[in-house]
């Protein structure tokens, strides 16, 4: 029995009931694919439902303010995805009259849509014969065929795409793509897969050679940078605070935050107190400065670990451009600040 026949039979018996699988409309398919990049289905599902409820069409998303989009995205991470999503919605709605490109090559030209997402939309919406290659596909194919190519290499995607294309039934590429991704997500999982219960137990090369735990090969290590963030939660005599928009490029672009002092290492109280007054509130005397959290909150991102402390600075007088806390809560924050506000303020 051919690989694709076994795989598709397994899929039809085991697939999850997911809303974006019940349509060929490219809008919800595109939304789901962008949201599920580096995000588990269980985490992404509430966001997908919130977006499709708030923005039922690409026109609704296009007409929204960026801050509304970022607020709804809050907690999903990789916020450039949300900004690109919004810009691409505007392109589709205003430049293309709401009509998505109907092929892989044209989809690739849209902001925020890479090879994987373009292939997913092209196959799921238009049944174009183009393979999707994500982490699940790398894992399934490398194990089944014992492919030792380092998937961190730029050339790996072409190699695996060619293999997937060879296996794909040309009359139903969408079903094959869904099946192989789902198989990697549910059965051929990264750690401790249940190989004895696998439909490919008798034909998987990695299982026969006892190499399942060694594949796929990924040699390139991500270098992680440590950063030390001190957020200053100022409170004046009117019980108002101050937040700013993070306009510089990099993490959390266009999200809001409290005044931030980034230091090379954890700093002591005296050093920070002096810097806070000079940097942020030269016209307000600081009556007291206390730490909300003695231990740093460690927030891990793909290439950096943030060690975060929140400081309460009680100020004399009134903060220029201060806002009350209820108003502040309506702005989009990085999830670590949002959680702090909900928990402590």
From TrEMBL:
Its EC number is 3.2.2.31. It is an enzyme of class 3 (hydrolase). It holds the Pfam family HHH. It catalyses: Hydrolyzes free adenine bases from 7,8-dihydro-8-oxoguanine:adenine mismatched double-stranded DNA, leaving an apurinic site. Binds 1 [4Fe-4S] cluster. Its cofactor is [4Fe-4S] cluster. Residues 35-186 form the HhH-GPD domain. Signal peptide: none annotated. It comes from the Bacteria. GO terms for molecular function: 4 iron, 4 sulfur cluster binding; 8-oxo-7,8-dihydroguanine DNA N-glycosylase activity; adenine/guanine mispair binding; metal ion binding; oxidized purine DNA binding; purine-specific mismatch base pair DNA N-glycosylase activity. The keyword Protease does not apply. The keyword Iron-sulfur applies. GO terms for biological process: base-excision repair; mismatch repair. Keywords: 4Fe-4S, DNA damage, DNA repair, Glycosidase, Hydrolase, Iron, Iron-sulfur, Metal-binding. Adenine glycosylase active on G-A mispairs. MutY also corrects error-prone DNA synthesis past GO lesions which are due to the oxidatively damaged form of guanine: 7,8-dihydro-8-oxoguanine (8-oxo-dGTP). Belongs to the Nth/MutY family. This is Adenine DNA glycosylase. It comes from Flavobacterium gilvum. The lineage of its organism: Bacteria, Pseudomonadati, Bacteroidota, Flavobacteriia, Flavobacteriales.
């Amino acid at each position: 029995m051919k690989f694709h026949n076994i795989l598709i039979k397994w899929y039809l018996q085991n697939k999850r009931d997911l809303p974006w699988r019940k349509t060929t409309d490219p809008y919800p398919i595109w939304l789901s694919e962008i949201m599920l990049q580096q995000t588990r289905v269980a985490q992404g599902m509430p966001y997908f439902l919130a977006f499709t409820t708030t923005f039922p069409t690409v026109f609704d998303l296009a007409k929204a303010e960026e801050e509304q989009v970022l607020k709804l995205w809050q907690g999903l991470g990789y916020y450039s995805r949300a900004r690109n999503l919004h810009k691409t919605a505007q392109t589709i709605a205003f430049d293309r009259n709401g009509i998505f490109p109907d092929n892989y090559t044209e989809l690739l030209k849209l902001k925020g849509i890479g090879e994987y997402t373009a292939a997913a939309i092209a196959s799921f919406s238009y049944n174009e014969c183009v393979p999707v290659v994500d982490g699940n596909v790398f894992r399934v194919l490398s194990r089944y065929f014992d492919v030792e190519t380092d998937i961190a290499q730029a050339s790996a995607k072409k190699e695996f795409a060619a293999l997937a294309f060879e296996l794909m039934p040309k009359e139903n590429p969408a079903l094959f793509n869904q099946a192989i991704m789902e198989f990697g997500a549910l059965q051929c999982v990264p750690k401790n897969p249940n190989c004895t219960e696998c439909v490919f137990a008798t034909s998987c090369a990695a299982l026969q050679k006892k190499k399942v735990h060694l594949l796929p090969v990924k040699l390139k290590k991500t270098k992680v940078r440590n950063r030390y963030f001190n957020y200053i939660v100022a409170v004046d005599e009117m019980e108002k605070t101050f937040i700013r928009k993070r306009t510089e490029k990099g993490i959390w672009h266009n999200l809001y935050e409290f005044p931030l002092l980034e230091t090379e290492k954890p700093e002591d109280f005296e050093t920070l107190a002096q810097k806070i007054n000079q940097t942020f509130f030269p016209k307000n005397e600081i009556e007291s400065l206390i730490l909300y959290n003695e231990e740093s909150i460690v927030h891990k991102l793909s290439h950096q670990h943030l060690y975060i402390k929140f400081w309460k600075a009680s100020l004399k007088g009134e903060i220029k451009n201060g806002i009350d806390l209820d108003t502040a809560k309506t702005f989009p924050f990085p999830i670590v600040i949002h959680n702090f506000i909900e928990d402590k303020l």
